[in-house]
Design a protein that fits this description.
2 domains
């Protein structure tokens, strides 16, 4: 496929893959792909994910290996407008409509996505983001 993923995107996919892979098969299931897609492409529909899963489950075992996941993501990310998607999703979490997401907002998003982070992980993400942000008050 023509569209290549950046090293950062591949590393992120590898982290998601390792987090969500099935301990028996070493691959990810449709349910896991839905979670990954929700994180990376928030505007994607469940139907679109099911179709992608079916298209890239080459061996028809009901799972995707890492290479199949990469090919799947190449296709979907080549069709996405990440800036538009990010802006739209950001507005959903910007409860005060002031251009910032607070630490509690980020914590709620992470919990709603079903991601297993401890509070220290969330605080670390906030601290990293704040290092590059204009505000230094717990808002992103």
């Amino acid at each position: 496929m023509e569209n290549n993923l950046s090293d950062k995107q591949i590393a992120m996919l590898k982290e998601y893959f390792d987090t969500f892979k099935d301990s028996n098969s070493g691959n990810i299931t449709l349910e896991s792909l839905l979670t990954i897609m929700t994180c990376m492409v928030p505007m994607i529909t469940e139907g679109a994910v099911v179709k992608l899963f079916t298209n890239f489950d080459y061996d028809r075992k009901g799972t995707l290996n890492f290479n199949e996941l990469i090919e799947c993501m190449k296709q979907i990310l080549s069709q996405a407008d990440p800036i538009e998607d990010f802006s739209r999703e950001f507005k959903k979490f910007d409860k005060n409509k002031n251009g910032f997401i607070t630490t509690p907002d980020l914590r709620r998003v992470i919990i709603n996505l079903g991601l297993a982070f401890i509070d220290d992980d969330i605080e670390c993400m906030i601290a990293e983001a704040e290092a590059e942000a204009e505000a230094k008050d717990g808002r992103l």
